[in-house]
Design the sequence.
């Protein structure tokens, strides 16, 4: 088969991995091209954000991403799988950002403040709220989607913070008996109900940077008063 014929066949979805192309030097096997996968996820994101999870179709995503139907099914089993991949990608980006904020070389107050602002800004952003509402809307009939949304990866903002707190307790910088509980408390203190207010429409726009910083600073003061080292509290 000629190269032109291969391209036409792949575009039509006839071939997922055309003949000998899988083994040719420089070619990627079907489903292993990260650029193509990213292209599909970006197209899916635009569709999901535009019409929602239920109304989105694989045909819509195929057109928006500019790929063949055959190609999209090489990378993703179905719409649920694609939505989970989108959420996983966004979560990974946030995890990297909050990890960067929790720099062991920075004073604890600065690191926790940066973490709180970064995480709260992401969780209250329009695209995050829309994604959460989509999942909540279908959770009764598609509980597996909600499970993948909240438990797709072992690492998230909460686990990153807990690990950081463990390190600070070990070096004596914080006095915390239960870092699992403390991590959850700090995240709640940083948001002070903003996530729920955004989800249920009481706060119809993302909070301002000034408001987020003020809230996180107040939460940090409470957290430090409770969990500062014993030498500080005495």
Sequence:
């Amino acid at each position: 088969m000629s190269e032109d014929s291969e391209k036409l066949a792949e575009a039509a979805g006839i071939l997922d991995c055309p003949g000998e192309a899988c083994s040719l030097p420089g070619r990627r096997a079907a489903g292993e091209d990260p650029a193509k996968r990213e292209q599909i996820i970006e197209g899916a994101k635009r569709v999901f954000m535009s019409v929602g999870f239920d109304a989105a179709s694989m045909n819509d995503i195929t057109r928006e991403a500019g790929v063949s139907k055959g190609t999209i099914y090489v990378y993703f089993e179905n719409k649920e799988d694609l939505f989970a991949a989108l959420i996983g990608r966004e979560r990974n980006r946030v995890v990297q950002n909050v990890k960067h904020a929790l720099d062991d070389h920075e004073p604890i107050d600065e690191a926790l403040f940066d973490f709180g602002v970064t995480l709260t800004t992401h969780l209250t952003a329009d695209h995050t709220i829309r994604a959460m509402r989509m999942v909540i809307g279908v959770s009764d009939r598609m509980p597996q989607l909600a499970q993948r949304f909240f438990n797709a990866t072992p690492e998230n903002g909460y686990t990153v913070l807990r690990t950081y707190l463990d390190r600070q307790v070990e070096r004596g910088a914080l006095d915390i008996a239960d870092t699992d509980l403390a991590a959850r408390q700090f995240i709640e203190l940083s948001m002070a109900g903003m996530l729920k207010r955004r989800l249920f429409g009481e706060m119809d726009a993302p909070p301002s940077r000034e408001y987020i910083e003020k809230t996180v600073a107040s939460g940090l003061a409470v957290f430090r008063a409770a969990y500062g080292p014993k030498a500080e509290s005495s």
In short: The radius of gyration is 22 Å. The mean pLDDT is 82. Residues 34 and 70 are 17 Å apart (CA to CA).
